[in-house]
Amino acid sequence: MKILKSIVFLSILTGIFFLIYRQSDQKGLRKLWISFKIAVLVAAIVAGLIPANTEAVELDRNNHQVYQERLLSEQLVQDNDQKVILAKNSGEADALTVPVPIIKPDQSNKGFNGLFGTKNDNESCSKDNPDDDPNNTPFSNSEINSDFKGNKPESKEYEHRMYEKTSNQDTDSETDDESECSIDEVKIGVANDGTFINTEKSQVRDKGLHIPDFLDAETLDGKFDVTEVKDLGYRDRLNYLRDKNNLPDEIVIKARDEILNFMTAGDTKLVPGFLGYSKIEGTVFINLRLNKVGFRDNDGYRFRTAMTMNDSKIRKLAKTGFHLFPDSGKPEN
Amino acid sequence: MKIRFDINRYKELLEKEKSLGQQNKSLIFENKEEFIELLSYGANVESQISYERKHDYYSLISQYIEKVITAPKFQSEFLKMEKEDAKAAKIITNDFKQLASFSVDFKAVEFSSLIEEISDVSMVAYEFGPEEGISDQEFRKSIEKTFLQIQKFLNEE
Prior knowledge:
Chain A is α+β, with helices and mostly antiparallel strands.
């Protein structure tokens, strides 16, 4: 009886394996492995080698979750020097040594060459309080129970994380720590094509000059005066913006939410494009209704910039292959 | 010579973009030429509005050239003016009646292309600074070059 079951098992296994393998949207070895796993499971049940238990067979997740899982695993091979601290509603934080970026984009990744990528942001060695943010979601919601919703206009399905970056740049540190640490709160928005936008608070802060493009004067009144920054040179301006007394966290968080509202809006168009002279690959976000343009890189799907742009500039962007600031970082003649 | 707008065509393009949007598509991908054409309405209105303030622009650029104001001050003031123009243009493009009676001087398009050059370089400097954007010397050189062209343009008027 056992031999018969085994024969039935093997023949069913082969059949199911090829069927799943052909239907699978996975690639390479992963496709092979997943097809094999599912085939073994189904074949074993059909052959009666393990008791049929629908609860055990049924995958308790939807397609989107499978998608996320795959993407996460792809990321395991890169960017391993970042720690993710997942904030819970209780204020506790779990530290995991998993990589930060979520989705590997279609376009080939390029190295991250400047354009604020090398910033030494000391804005917070003390942990920012995630409880202040109503959109904060607990670890279980963001990682296990992800109710991933793509193609949703004005999506508020943001994940909220705190990343601890380690760096050895702090040679002048007055602290006893040997390595510099900065806690960077990241909010993840879901664009209308289902892809993620990792929005670091520090990046929004550095782009503080564009904050009035996203928040009205009433919100900014008495809290952030952009006119004080405008006349400063670039370095002084950055230092000014990185000081929480000049630009409070509350404003940065509100601005980040508004930026994500624009970037995840249903009528925002996502176009493959570039940033800077070194042609950083990414996605240009264009919203004609709001006259807003943003950029997210392909190196971890990180938010890089967002601003108001007039029609003539958007037109030029379209004419030049959606290359944002093509002369930025161009070597001098 | 003046440019007048074909409102029916504008409405048609808007409608096309709207209906494509409902299918998660856009003229950007379906017909880039039409997408650029759609944006040209707003861009041309912006040109005319900037042109009408040409002396304000000239005065601001002169102040920077003569080192009356610093580069960051110039950049922020310049971009602010441009934003004001865009805001005024948006009001017109959102109102078909106003747009129908609006006309754009050919000279305005020429002037705005010069302004756009300054705007581009100012945005790079403003956004990225000298280290990752454009050096102070390159910035000045670029503005001076365009300033001469603007002077020539205004003298020929």
